[in-house]
Amino acid sequence: MTSTTRNELTLDGRRLSYLESGPATARPLLVLHGHLSEGAAFTALAAELGDEWRVIAPDQRGHGDSDRASEYSRQGYIDDLVALLAHLNLKSAVVLGHSLGGINAYQLASHHPDLVSAIINVEGPPALPEGPSGLAFVAGFPYTAATREELIAATGPIGPMIAPALRPTPDGGWRLPFHPQDTIDSETLVHGDHWADWTGSTCPALFIHGTKSQVFTPELAKETTDRRPNTTMVELEGDHFAHTQDPKGFTTAVRNFLATL
After folding, report:
1. What are the chain's domains?
2. Is 138 within 8 Å of 186 (Cβ atoms)?
3. Strand 205-210 and strand 116-122: pairing?
4. Can you list the alpha helix ranges (DSSP code H) found in the chain?
5. CA distances from 200 to 64, 82, 101, 107 (A)
6. Which of 68, 157, 183, 238 has the fewest Cβ atoms within 10 angstroms?
7. Would you write out the chain's pLDDT as a tens digit for each of its 261 residues?
8. With contact defined as beta carbons under 8 Å apart, do 239 and 245 qualify?
9. How many CA atoms lie within 13 A of 244 on its CB side?
10. What's the CA dihedral at 30, 259, 106, 216 to 10 degrees?
11. What is the pTM of this model?
12. Is residue 39 a contact partner of residue 19, using CB atoms and an 8 Å limit?
């Protein structure tokens, strides 16, 4: 089995934690999770890729084992990724991201094309209408609770999904792998027109779309593929989280694309 290690770097006094799998000499694949998630979301993919790729999976700012940040701007996320790649002495990497992570991936490629050799965008929209956060429902979640069971129950229907990512606290309690208000602030700032960033790079790109997506209509999915040169689309059965609902199809799509690079 491919071993996984957790490491960290400090950015302006803030910890950025990340997982690494695969040989240090293998080709680098930077994988970026979405909101309500963490780097470990791609552990199964890293295991499937084995020794072929060095998979680097950060807990992005305010998620998982990484410290909360003072802000969650688009530029802030990108700056973290630039710093992480520099810390690892990587001149470039293939970058895969889901949702928030997908937007971060293609914006990194647009702003720093020398750092990104290819993009795998999993349901990261090129535009979202302005308006209230789509994750406003987390506002009622407690950040901490005395017991793990209490925290799972307090998060309602998504409790089972985030249960594996809950963290113990120094006082013996438990906390979410994200702060509710941070999540709302972050998700609000992904809204807007990002077409210029999506089409602003020329490296090979794979767009992975869930056929029952709550974010992409079939028309938007087609436009996302058509408007960016050197881009192909793979559709998976499932919604915005199709990569977790069809992990075999997801791994196959990623493998096939990586093999073309």
Report:
1. 4-130+178-258 (3.40.50.1820), 142-175 (no CATH)
2. no
3. parallel
4. 43-49, 74-87, 100-111, 148-154, 159-162, 180-188, 195-198, 218-226, 242-245, 247-258
5. 30, 17, 17, 8
6. 157
7. 578 999 999 999 999 999 999 999 999 999 999 999 999 999 999 999 999 999 999 999 999 999 999 999 999 999 999 999 999 999 999 999 999 999 999 999 999 999 999 999 999 999 999 888 889 999 999 999 999 999 999 999 999 999 999 999 999 999 999 999 999 999 999 999 999 999 999 999 999 999 999 999 999 999 999 999 999 999 999 999 999 999 999 999 999 999 999
8. yes
9. 15
10. -110
11. 0.97
12. yes
Amino acid at 150: E
Residue appearing with tokens 């890729």: 49
The token duo for 161 is 């999904």
Give me the amino acid identity at 127: A
